[in-house]
Amino acid sequence: MKTGIIYCPNHRPFMSVKKRWEMIEAELRAAGIEYDLVQSEDSESVERLVNMLINNGYDNIVIAGGDSALNDAANCLMRCERQTRERIALGIIPNGVMNDFAGFWGFHYNDIKSSVASIAARRIRKIDIGIITYQEKHGEECQRYFLNSVNIGLLAAIQRLRQQMRKRFWSRKLSFALSFVMLFFQKMTYKMEYTIDNVREQHRVMTLCVGNAHGYGQTPNATPYNGMLDITVMRQIALLQIVSAIYLFIKGKILTHKYVLPYRTTGIELQMGGTTPCSIDGHPIESQAGKVTMAVLNEQINFIIEKK
Questions:
Q1: Which residues have CB under 8 Å from 222's CB, separation 6+?
Q2: Model confidence over 62-116: pLDDT tens digits?
Q3: Angle made by CA atoms 93, 99, 100, in degrees to the nearest 5
């Protein structure tokens, strides 16, 4: 089988791009995996490289990157005919700023060997994928797919600020801390109207997460193979209660917070303001005010999961 690897460099402190690839390369060689390598120049180049591998008949497409690069690859596959998708398996070697979807399957940044061993074993599971339809800033209707989650509101704002800070500061921890400080100068709540299972709700919301998987800890019980989406809505809360919410979030018990509304459904429709921040698998998007719909498509992509 032909295996293509797309290496998406991640400029982390104390780890050069070259050194990181040498570590991955050593594990690939030890596992006896034959592959062709291409390197992305930036986030915009990933889809072009994935399409190139698809068109050249590769059976395994492995992303050495994070959630956003994996999202680009999944979107390329979903634009292919079903017959083409049936032939291709998508794999991951965690190498991004955010590796939440990889973490769901037990793959971690500091354990390259486990990820490579799973690629060699090629144990496949068909997984679900979410689809979001919205109007982009010029008014055109857009559709995009997501493997992990769509975040609207507070967490999307943090992700956007963090990306901006990372461009200015080399330290991951420093960029996160500065993003958190900057957040206090941002809008904290957003008026949202949403419909789930024909029930209409209207709240001032801090954050809303639609998860096909863990959703960066906001939808901890979501699984990308049950044909359902988990939705977590955090309503407006007082400043002092944010501390308790953060504590429960760290402990993985955010769903027990009294101001959190959890749902499990096949779809959601909501009205979103044009200034409301939104991200798809970590990708910030520019959208217009208007209707947004999300649904789940069952068993769409072959994904290489953890070796037994």
A1: 149, 211, 212, 213, 214, 215, 228, 229, 230
A2: 999 999 999 999 999 999 999 999 999 999 999 988 899 999 999 999 999 999 9
A3: 125
Task: Give the Cβ contact number of residue 274 at 10 Å.
Answer: 11
Q: How buried is 45 (Cβ within 10 angstroms: 0-12 exposed, 13-18 middle, 19+ buried)?
A: middle
d(C-alpha 150, C-alpha 208), whole Å: 8
∠207-96-126 over CA atoms, to 5°? 80
Tens digit of each residue's pLDDT (9 = 90 or more) over 244-286: 777 777 777 888 888 899 999 999 999 887 778 899 998 888 7
- The CA distance from 149 to 129, in Å, is 10
For the four alpha carbons of 210, 215, 218 and 221, in that order, the dihedral sign comes to positive
Residue with tokens 């559709």: 143
Under DSSP, the state recorded for 40 is -
DSSP state of 273: -
pTM for the full predicted model = 0.89
Tell how strand 124-135 and strand 141-146 pair up.
antiparallel
What tokens does 6 get?
């797309």
